[in-house]
Amino acid sequence: MRILILSLALMAGACASGPTVYAPANGSNRGYSEQQIENDRIRIRFDGGADVSFQELEDLALRRAADLTLERGGDWFRVVSRSRDGDSERPVSVGGSVGQTFGNSRYSGSSVGLGLRLNPGAGDKTIFLEIVIGSGTPASAPDVYDAREVMRWQS
Prior knowledge:
The protein is of the alpha+beta class and 155 residues long. The chain has one domain (16-99, 111-154). Helix content is 26%, strand content 39%. It is built from 3 helices and 7 strands. The chain has helices at 2-15, 54-71, 147-154; strands at 31-38, 41-48, 76-86, 92-101, 109-118, 125-134, 144-146. It has a 5-stranded antiparallel beta sheet. Strands 4-5 form a two-stranded antiparallel sheet. It is elongated. Residues 4-15 have low confidence and may be disordered.
């Protein structure tokens, strides 16, 4: 029985996508992409899997925002919109049950069940950030980030 469970778990792991890393998506379901909305306004999308939390994925999206800000000659960026999509489920889950029936001696019994759920798409998540890039001294506000400071705490 253990061999069966281990084999199924390994098969599910083989079907899963690679790890979430800081890299362009390039047509895969992991990584970042961006779309320029206006000259200083950009929408960033970062797709991740079950191997990262929503917070870790947002940190990666903020790192991309800082990179873009510095690449375009800015000093800071303001997050004007943020949203997320997906779930925190794991692609493989195990469950069990125990049952008991009572009656006279001819009709009583018990049972044990074990279930394995494979859901390769579970755990996929996406963070969307819309940013505005600015130069000079950043305004003091909760959604304004100094790009160089973000790069320092991301290292």
